[in-house]
Design a protein that fits this description.
Elements lengths: L19 H8 L8 H4 L4 H26 L10 H23 L8 H22 L7 H24 L4 H11 L1 H9 L2
Helix pairs in contact: 3-7, 3-8, 4-5, 4-7, 5-6, 6-7
């Protein structure tokens, strides 16, 4: 093992597939016994993203629990398409949360499959989010553009992960962007 001074930095770039996270992911792609968390390069950016991800996981559980115990607003139930759009949105979001969180713990040999499922769930989640954008809660003049902006960034991050499925930072960033809605729910307290 080399000196810490010789360790490459995790120069995260959208188009760069030679960042340390991609190199490490590529090195274990055929390993059925090694998970990402065992080989990850824990630089300050990654540690920060992991802390946000762990806090977000707690918040996500709270938001899902809230939606289980509190009936949805009638505006999501009035039309058949809105009702099914909401069901598909929630299901794809739950799948994305599961695969995004567990990405760190699965063997390297299934990372590409895990990332692909996370991306497909994210694409479905984005499509249903765009469909719901006109009826978001809050000040419409602010919330609709902000919601569409975040969903578009999420779409871009999902494409990036789909193109680089072995890059663990990209999976974590996509997971954290999904959690923005949960954080909005916490701060708005609705």
């Amino acid at each position: 093992m080399g000196s810490i001074l010789n360790t490459p930095k995790n120069d995260y770039s959208f188009l760069n597939d030679q960042t340390i996270d991609c190199v490490i992911g590529e090195s274990i792609k055929d390993d059925s016994g090694t998970a990402i968390w065992e080989r990850a390069y824990y630089d300050p950016f990654l540690v920060q993203q992991l802390c946000v991800g762990l806090l977000s996981m707690i918040v996500n559980f709270g938001v899902v629990y809230y939606h289980i115990i509190v009936p949805v607003h009638p505006k999501f139930q009035l039309r058949f398409a809105r009702r099914w759009g909401m069901h598909i949105h929630v299901l794809s979001g739950l799948i994305e949360i599961f695969f995004g969180f567990s990405y760190w713990f699965v063997p390297g040999s299934v990372l590409s499959t895990w990332a692909t499922v996370q991306c497909i769930a994210s694409f479905i989640h984005c499509i249903t989010a765009y469909y719901q954008a006109p009826i978001v809660f809050g000040v419409q003049a602010f919330m609709v553009p902000a919601y569409v902006f975040v969903v578009t960034i999420k779409w871009i991050c999902a494409i990036n992960l789909l193109l680089n499925p072995l890059c663990y930072v990209r999976s974590l960033v996509l997971f954290n962007i999904l959690s923005i809605y949960a954080w909005v729910r916490v701060f708005v307290a609705t």
